[in-house]
Design goal:
Blueprint (H helix, E strand, L loop, with lengths): L8 E7 L2 E7 L7 E7 L1 E4 L9 H18 L4 H8 L1 E2 L2 E2 L4 H4 L2 H13 L5 H16 L5 H4 L6 H10 L3 E5 L4 H10 L8 E3 L10 H11 L6 E5 L2 H9 L4 E5 L12 E3 L5 E3 L13 E2 L3 H4 L1
Parallel strand pairs: 1-12, 3-13, 4-7, 4-9, 7-8, 9-10, 10-11
Antiparallel strand pairs: 1-2, 2-3, 5-6
Helix pairs in contact: 1-2, 1-5, 2-4, 4-5
């Protein structure tokens, strides 16, 4: 169930190749966070663009079952490590946030704890991941865009804001997601964690900006995890926007928090009311609270 986190609105004000981004946190005494001269937005995928929680619960159980078939007694521990509690998936847990390699290393560690050598533990974990991948389930079919994402992307495109995806998923799965939902034309660049760098390495963000032809200081990062926040702030981004529409909690160190894609609108720059605080430039929501 989605939690009623801080209610915010995000307005992107664009013209030509530049936009002025202002975040309106309506539950915080009408204060606003303002990001100026934004040219690009780098999105996370799972939990931000794509509703992947149901699929990730399925994948965690599948991997755990295959591992249990080879190493008895690890099923419950692996589910807990993946962040699965009954029908719930921890949005900040290993399965939701970690890369495939992160998950594989965790599985191998549990195997090693049963008395296996590390090389054998790694081999067993790899075998179980391959076996789980053989299931006749296409991830893209099970991970549709959240409600409001498609209109949001269209609004950004029409405002000439360049878009990219940096994900903990594989590059192949990002491409399949874009193909499945006819989004390939919306994004100028994307990359998964199976390449040279993965989140939160700032070199990955620098690469994304270079591919888009924009400055990091004119690029926003939008995501649902602390890794996305670290990517943005270590990489010198204009700011990080924490999203909670995927049921995850707000990231305390985010520069702004939004709870619905529909809160992102296009319009003229805001002028503060005479009786309200003036818009503050790049002020963390933690400060506004």
């Amino acid at each position: 169930m989605c939690k009623p986190w801080l209610r915010c609105g995000l307005r992107l004000f664009g013209g030509g190749n530049l936009g002025l981004v202002t975040v309106l946190c309506r539950s915080v005494q009408s204060n606003a966070v303002q990001f100026e001269a934004i040219e690009a937005v780098v999105f996370d995928k799972d939990g931000t663009l794509a509703d992947s929680h149901q699929f990730l619960r399925y994948l965690a159980r599948s991997r755990s079952r295959h591992l249990e078939a080879q190493v008895a007694g690890v099923y419950d521990a692996m589910l807990a490590a993946y962040g699965v509690r009954g029908d719930c998936l921890d949005p900040a847990g290993l399965m939701a946030v970690g890369t495939r390699q992160d998950n594989l290393i965790a599985a191998a560690a549990y195997v090693a704890a049963q008395g296996y050598g590390w090389a054998e533990a790694i081999a067993i974990a790899q075998q179980t991941f391959v076996a789980a991948d053989q299931a006749p389930v296409r991830k893209a079919d099970q991970t549709p865009p959240y409600e409001g994402i498609l209109p949001l992307l269209d609004r950004l495109r029409r405002a000439a804001v360049k878009l990219a995806i940096v994900s903990g998923d594989t590059t192949h799965n990002i491409q399949d997601f874009l193909d499945r939902y006819d989004l390939s034309d919306q994004f100028a660049w994307f990359q998964g964690s199976d390449r040279e760098w993965a989140k939160p390495d700032p070199r990955l963000f620098a690469q994304a900006c270079a591919e888009l032809g924009v400055s990091p200081a004119r690029t926003l990062v939008i995501g649902d995890s602390a890794l996305d926040e670290q990517l943005a702030h270590r990489g010198g981004a204009a700011g990080f926007i924490s999203v909670t529409w995927g049921s995850g909690p707000p990231i305390p160190t985010a520069d702004a928090t939004v709870n619905s894609p529909s809160a992102i609108t296009l319009g003229p720059p805001l002028v503060a009311d005479s009786g309200s605080a003036a818009a503050e430039s790049h002020v963390p929501t933690e400060t506004l609270r």
